[in-house]
Write a structure and sequence with these properties.
Layout lengths: L3 E6 L7 H14 L4 E5 L7 H4 L10 H5 L5 H4 L1 E2 L6 E4 L12 H11 L5 E5 L6 H8 L3 E6 L3 H16 L6 E7 L1 H6 L5 H8 L2 E7 L2 H9 L10 H13 L15 H9 L10
Parallel strand pairs: 1-5, 1-6, 2-4, 2-5, 6-7, 7-8
Antiparallel strand pairs: 3-4
Helix pairs in contact: 1-11, 5-6
Length: 272
C-alpha cells in the first residue's frame, strides 16, 4: 500500500486553510479511506480545535520527530468513528524544531499504511512552509476571492513550482454568490484567470462553518451546510471522481479592473 501526501497551503493566513484541511480529511475518511492530518503550524496549532480533539493531546509532532514517542502514540483518532487521525503541532516550540527531511521521512512511513496524509501548512513562506512542501507530492492552495489573498496565493504558486510541485490545485473559499452577482466580489472565472491553476472546489460563505468550528465538529458532518457539501465534492475530486463545478459568473468588466489592482498578469496554464 502506498498513500499520497498532500500539502494544503495558502500564503496568507485567515483564508480557511486549517478548516479546509479538517473537512477534506474528514470527507476523504467518509469515503472509507484511511487518513492522517498533520498540523505543522508549530507554536500556533488550531487543527485540533476544529476537529474537537484538543483535550486528547498527549504527544505532538515534535515529540515524534525527536523520538520521544512512537508515531502511534501521537496520533489521535477522530470522534466520529472514521479512519481519520490527527498528529497535532507542538504549542511551545518553534518551527525550527523540525527539518524538512524529518517530516518527509515521517510522511513516507505513513504512506505505507494510510491512503492520504494531509499536511496543514503554516501561513507564510518561511521554515514551516519549506517543511510542509518538501514532504508532499501534491499541493492544494486555499484562497478567498480578495485582492490580498490572491496576491499571496500567486506568490505561493511560484514557490511551489520552484520546489517541484508543478500542478497545484485551487480551492476558492468563502465565495458569496450574491456579492459576485452584484459585481462586488470576484467570481470563479476571475480567480481562475488570475492564478491559472486547476480549480478543485468552490466553498460558499456559510455561517454554519463557523458554528461547526466552534463546536469542534467538521462541517462535513452537517447535512444542511452548503460548505460541508462543497468539501465533500472536493474530496471526491481529489479521490479521482469527476464531479462538475457550479459556476458563479460575475458582472462583465470586473475582472480587468481587479487584475490591475492585484498586479498579476495571469499565468499560462493548460488543464490538459
Amino acid at each position: 500500500m502506498t498513500g499520497k501526501t498532500i500539502v494544503i497551503t495558502s500564503g496568507k493566513g485567515g483564508v480557511g486553510k486549517t478548516t479546509a484541511t479538517a473537512n477534506i480529511g474528514a470527507a476523504l475518511a467518509m469515503r472509507r479511506h484511511r487518513v492522517v492530518v498533520i498540523d505543522t503550524d508549530i507554536g500556533l496549532r488550531n487543527l485540533d480545535v476544529i476537529m474537537g480533539l484538543e483535550n486528547r493531546i498527549v504527544y505532538d509532532l515534535v515529540n515524534v520527530i525527536e523520538g520521544k514517542c512512537r508515531v502511534r502514540q501521537a496520533m489521535i483518532k477522530d470522534k466520529h468513528g472514521l479512519e481519520l487521525y490527527l498528529i497535532p503541532a507542538a504549542q511551545t516550540r518553534d518551527k525550527d524544531s523540525i527539518e524538512p527531511s524529518q517530516l518527509r521521512e515521517l510522511c513516507a512511513a505513513l504512506e505505507q499504511e494510510y491512503d492520504y496524509i494531509l499536511i496543514d501548512c503554516p501561513a507564510g513562506i518561511e521554515q514551516g512552509f519549506r517543511n510542509a512542501t518538501t514532504a508532499a507530492q501534491e499541493a492544494v492552495i486555499v484562497t478567498t476571492p480578495e485582492v490580498a489573498a490572491i496576491r499571496d496565493a500567486d506568490r505561493v504558486i511560484g514557490l511551489l513550482e520552484a520546489s517541484g510541485l508543478h500542478r497545484p490545485r485551487l480551492v476558492i473559499n468563502r465565495i458569496d454568490a450574491d456579492l459576485v452577482r452584484r459585481g462586488d466580489m470576484m467570481g470563479q472565472k476571475d480567480v481562475e484567470s488570475l492564478l491559472a491553476i486547476e480549480l478543485i472546489g468552490l466553498v460558499p460563505a456559510d455561517e454554519r462553518t463557523v458554528s461547526a468550528a466552534n463546536r469542534g465538529v467538521p462541517v462535513v458532518h452537517d447535512a444542511r451546510s452548503a460548505a460541508g457539501a462543497a468539501y465533500i465534492r472536493i474530496a471526491a475530486r481529489m479521490d479521482g471522481e469527476e464531479v462538475p463545478l457550479n459556476e458563479i459568473t460575475p458582472r462583465p468588466g470586473m475582472f480587468h479592473k481587479l487584475r490591475d489592482l492585484v498586479g498579476i498578469k495571469g499565468r499560462a496554464y493548460s488543464h490538459a
